[in-house]
């Protein structure tokens, strides 16, 4: 920030005065900047030309800039404190989910021991027809579920683990896709997968849920608690 005080073009000023009148000031804090400004101001008042005093408007403008810098610095400090409190509250809130199942964005279904994890979806608006297609690890379709009309919001279901011919699906990981439409027009839909919250991890971005082998998720990712 360049701080300039008074008229530096006056012929009556000495070279040393002209050099101090236009000075590039680099300060780490607004307090440092204010101290340097006052030092320059006092020097200018001592050496100004009585017939050509410094412009009051210029002085007021630079004082206003200093106050703005100071205000921004205090605001950043306040926001940093608030952010820290929010992160602490998020961590406390997240710990209450440990041991609970949650529905988060994803399209995976796990099958094992004659049971399967729930699956779900989130609709921005109501849909007349919703179809879920389940595929195995090779991409082969093993089951198609017609869910009919669904309201806007979050919905979750359980798959019985049977494929199209009625036999049990082999243990493993499956994926699913969701198609939602109204009057033939496709709608935006978010598939949701099930995960068990194993713990809470805290980092610079806030609290994150540890979903064991299924990775991590934020509190904003949680669409439903089961």
SSE inventory with pairings:
Layout: E1 2-4, H1 15-21, E2 22-24, H2 30-47, H3 56-95, E3 101-105, E4 108-112, E5 115-116, E6 119-123, E7 127-135, E8 141-150, E9 153-157, E10 172-182, E11 185-186, E12 189-196, E13 199-203, E14 206-210, E15 216-218, E16 224-225
Antiparallel strand pairs: 1-2, 3-12, 3-16, 4-5, 4-10, 6-9, 6-12, 7-8, 7-10, 10-11, 13-14, 14-15
Please tell me about this protein's structure.
With 226 residues, the protein is α+β, with helices and mostly antiparallel strands. The chain has two domains: 2-94, no CATH class; 101-225, Immunoglobulin-like. It is 29% helix and 37% strand. The chain has three helices and 16 strands. Strands 4, 5, 7, 8, 10 and 11 form a six-stranded antiparallel beta sheet that branches. The chain is elongated, with a radius of gyration of 33 Å. Mean pLDDT is 79; it is low at 1-27.
Q: How many distinct domains?
A: 2
Summarize the main sheet: 6 strands, antiparallel
Cα gyration radius (Å): 33 Å
What is the CATH domain class of the largest domain? Answer: Mainly Beta
Helical content (DSSP H or I, runs of 4+):
25-40%
User: In angstroms, what separates the terminal alpha carbons?
Assistant: 56 Å
Oligomer state equals single chain
Low-confidence stretches: 1-27
Family: Belongs to the FlgD family.
Protein name: Basal-body rod modification protein FlgD
Function: Required for flagellar hook formation. May act as a scaffolding protein.
Domain FlgD Tudor-like: 89-223
């Amino acid at each position: 920030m360049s701080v300039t005080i008074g008229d530096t073009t006056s012929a009556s000023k000495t070279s040393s005065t002209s050099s101090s009148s236009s000075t590039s000031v680099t300060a780490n804090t607004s307090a440092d900047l204010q101290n340097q400004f006052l030092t320059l101001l006092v020097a200018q008042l001592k050496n100004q030309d009585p017939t050509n005093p410094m412009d009051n408007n210029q002085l007021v403008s630079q004082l206003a800039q200093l106050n703005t810098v100071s205000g921004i610095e205090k605001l950043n400090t306040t926001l940093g404190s608030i952010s820290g409190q929010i992160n602490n509250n998020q961590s406390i809130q997240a710990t209450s989910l440990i041991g609970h199942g949650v529905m988060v964005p994803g399209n995976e279904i796990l099958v094992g021991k004659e049971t399967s994890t729930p699956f779900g979806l989130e609709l921005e608006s109501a849909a007349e027809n919703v179809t879920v297609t389940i595929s195995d690890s090779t991409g082969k379709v093993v089951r198609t579920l017609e869910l009919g009309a669904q309201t806007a919001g979050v919905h979750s279901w359980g798959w019985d683990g049977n494929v199209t011919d009625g036999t049990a699906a082999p243990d493993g990981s499956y994926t699913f896709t969701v198609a939602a439409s109204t009057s033939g027009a496709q709608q935006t839909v978010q598939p949701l997968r099930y995960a068990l919250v194993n713990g809470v991890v805290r980092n610079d971005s806030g609290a994150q849920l540890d979903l064991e082998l299924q990775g991590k998720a934020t509190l904003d990712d949680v669409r439903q608690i089961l």
